[in-house]
Amino acid sequence: MSGKIRRSFGNRSRKSRFGFGVASWNLLFHILVVLLPINNDEIKKGVSQRDPSQMIFFTLKDMKVGQNIPIYFPKKDPSSSPHLLARYEASSIPFSLKELPNLLNFFCFSQDSPQAKAMESTLSLCEIEPIKGETKFCATSLESMLDFVRGAFGLEESFSVVTTTFLTKSSTTFQNYTIFDVPKEILALKMVACHTMQCTHAVYYCHYQESENKVYKISLGGENGDKVEAVAFCHMDTSHWSRDHVSFRVLRIEPGTFPVCHFFPADHLVWVPTPSTK
User: Fold this and answer.
1) Residue 32: which of 20, 48, 44 has the closest Cα?
2) Is the pTM value of this prediction over 0.90?
3) Is residue 201 one of the residues assigned to a domain?
4) Helices (H), the chain
């Protein structure tokens, strides 16, 4: 599911939760991220001691033409990702942590297999309590995702989706990028972010927050010639995030001290209301 989608569908919000396991640390960097206001040279210097996938952060003051930022973009083609099932298909799959043995049996995976560990991690991510001010839901079908989005925006609101787009093809995942055009804010009072999860079939972890957030489209040029139209998400209030969140350790800041921003991988989605033409 990629590119632009303009639809007006229904939503029935459903309570969901979020937890984490070892197999999902990289996902966490893309779900609840924080920005440290440190020099980018310091970040680059420290990357040899860190997983490069942590390099998705930047500050609001970095958001200017000519700014150089080291960024990790996983090169996963959204068109090759598992597709969301139809609701009637998804409803036949036992999607809950307590049903994990039946789920493994359903897909013929052993309990110690990598697939089993990924499914256990995903189910845990979906079932832990949300943080204060957050509403979340794990969508296993296109209909359920659109239901959730409509519930966030209102029954009569139309909406569209924005995604990060690679304008050139390469295998480089981590390099320096330069902002070569004025970042464009997508004006929206509320937005819904949906992140791909590790599972046997397509599952999206979707959530939105009552606190202020901002979404931007940013044109980037890589040092190897790559060009990316990137989606960036800025969290203006992190005061309710856990102090133990890995991003705070990586970026060396405290919850609620600074607005924090991060880039979205190409197969993650941000839903926003469609501006009225009236």
Assistant:
1) 20
2) no
3) yes
4) 25-31, 40-46, 87-90, 100-107, 114-127, 142-153, 246-251
What residues have CB less than 8 Å from 276, skipping those under 6 apart? none
Output the CA–CA distances (angstroms, integers) from residue 252 to 29, 127, 227, 239, in the order listed: 14, 28, 30, 15
In a domain, 102, yes or no: yes
- Strands 227-235 and 68-72, by their bridges, are unpaired
Which amino acid, one-letter code, is at 181? Answer: D
**Is 186 within a domain?**
yes
Q: Say how many domains are in the chain.
A: 1
The Cα–Cα gap between 101 and 107 comes to 10
Residue-number span of the structural domain to which 49 is assigned:
6-272
Which residues, in sequence order, are bridge partners of residue 209?
Answer: 134
Q: Is 48 within a domain?
A: yes
d(Cα 220, Cα 167) in Å, to the nearest integer?
A: 10
Q: What is the pLDDT of residues 196-226, one digit of tens each?
A: 988 777 899 999 988 889 999 999 999 999 9
Per-residue pLDDT of 79-103, as tens digits, reads 666 778 889 888 888 888 998 988 8
